[in-house]
Amino acid sequence: MIFLTAFIVGGLICVVGQLLMDLTNYKVTLAHILVGFVTTGAVLSALGLYQPLVELAGAGALVPLTGFGHILAQGAIRGVETDGLLGVFAGGVEAAAAGVTAAVVFGYFFAIVFKPKG
Amino acid sequence: MDVDFTKPAGIQRKQYRDFTDQINPKPNVLVNAIWAFVVGGIICTVGQGFLNAFLAAGLPVLESGAMTAVVLIFIAAFLTGLGVFDDIAKYAGAGVIVPITGFANAMVAPAMEARNEGLVLGVGARLFTIAGPVLVFGIVAAWLTGLLYFLFR
Amino acid sequence: MPAAKKQGLQTLVFQNPPVIVAAGTVVGGKEAQGPLGKTFDLAIDDPYCGEKSWEHAERRMLEDAAKTALKKAGLGTQGIDFFLAGDLENQILASSFAARSLGIPHLGLFGACSTFYEGLIIGAVLIDGGFAEKVLVAASSHCCTAEKQFRFPTEQGVQRSLAQSWTVTGAGAVILASQGAGPVITHATVGKVIDLGQSDPTNFGAVMAPAAADTIVRHFQDTGRPPEFYDLVVTGDLGIYGRELAQGLIGDHGYRVEGRYTDCGILIYDHDTQDTHAGGSGCACSAVVTGGYLLQQLQAGKLQRFLGVGTGALLNVDSPKQGETIPGIGHGVVIERR
Question: Which residues of A are less than 8 Å from B47 in CB distance?
Answer without folding.
Answer: 6, 10, 59, 62-63
